[in-house]
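Minutes, project check-in

Agenda point 3 was the complex the collaborators sent over. CS summarized: four entities, 422 residues total, and the question is how they sit relative to each other. Sequences were read into the notes so everyone works from the same version.
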Amino acid sequence: MNKLKQKISEKTIERLSIYRRYLKDLQKNGKDRVYSHELAQLVSGTAAQVRRDLMQVGSNGCSSKGYEVSMLIDEIAKLLDCSEKQNIALIGVGNLGRALLGYFSGSRENYDIVALFDNAPDKCGRVICGKRCYSMNQLTEIVKEQKISTAILAVPAEAAEETAQNLIDAGIKAILNFAPRHITTRSRVFIETLDMTKALEKAIYFSRKNT
Amino acid sequence: MNKLKQKISEKTIERLSIYRRYLKDLQKNGKDRVYSHELAQLVSGTAAQVRRDLMQVGSNGCSSKGYEVSMLIDEIAKLLDCSEKQNIALIGVGNLGRALLGYFSGSRENYDIVALFDNAPDKCGRVICGKRCYSMNQLTEIVKEQKISTAILAVPAEAAEETAQNLIDAGIKAILNFAPRHITTRSRVFIETLDMTKALEKAIYFSRKNT
DNA sequence: TTCACGCTGTGTAATATTTCACAATTAAAG
DNA sequence: CTTTAATTGTGAAATATTACACAGCGTGAA
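CS then shared the predicted structure for the full assembly.
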């Protein structure tokens, strides 16, 4: 029934994350069923697209009653989440880094920032927002010790590439990069860049085109 | 020569922004020519793709010498930038908002954050990082007064949709949304959502899939 | 000049992603 | 039970995006 291991596209993974967040809201509000066209609005997509996405998680929609919210959440979790909680490192504890620390701290079930890294002497050694800050030369050690799989990179642009390489060398498997640099690597590490400058310039461009 | 007004895709606009940032670096370093395959590395793309992108800005590449850096920068600016500097509003002056304010302040030539908005009484009325913070009910007034075209939305998820609607009503033409909510609207306003939670969950997912 | 090389510009092919459209299924009403 | 209305799952079409491949041109060397 479940066609095992057809690779799921990045776009679908992104949408699944969005669906799940909304489904959890629905659950909180006591709604226990949902239709594909309701989810479609969330991503400015079509109902058919939603159904295709959900098929890939082994969907269990019911004709004319839609999908069961709690089951969908479970199915998506089975796909997106690892069985054990994922440990995340935050690299760079400047203004942006601290904001991200606050943003990602709290009620996350399946991942958590467990270590900070920064070379500034006034930061490393300290505990910031409840997390210990280490210097970069402890990276490999801590990554191993805490089984950290993923890093959030919030260092200045000039330091991004070198730092990313250090992360890769330390055994990190994925990087969420906030520095305005697209990082290239020949390794199999997954790098997702959230380029805020690019996004703002794009928004400014289309502010004039969408009359 | 320049085939007027074939619509340029969002993806191309994003890449152009990235090319330009790199080109400015090259210029600073005294390099005055660049090949399409050099730019291709930046976006993990192919040389052909870069050449297609550059064609759309009216490219002027020269066989066997590549593109002239300063001319490319000018051509891209002619496409991406407006003639006058764009005024930006930042909505939500929490931790993330302040970090974004720092991030986007400084040496930007073609846009600038000129006004902050937040309803917290300890913030509105004050000047933060050199920018005045207003309360949300002054929005329409200030947007008109300062000719603000674009807003950066950094409010909590619960407030995102309502605030976005207020922005649209006030005449904003584009929104860069940092709240973890996908905002739907029937208006022609351009909305770009930078969904950090989605991005992190995606990174975590692929940290396990990329062997 | 002539040749060889390397790069651009672009038609065409290939791939990825989304949408359409409809048979099958379920629920509910009569 | 039969009919009606609504929704799912999915093949096939449509669209969007990327990559290939090569003609043509400029450059530099002989």
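Noted in discussion: The CA atoms of residues 197 and 203 of chain B lie 10 Å apart.
Follow-up: revisit at the next meeting once the mutant set is ready.
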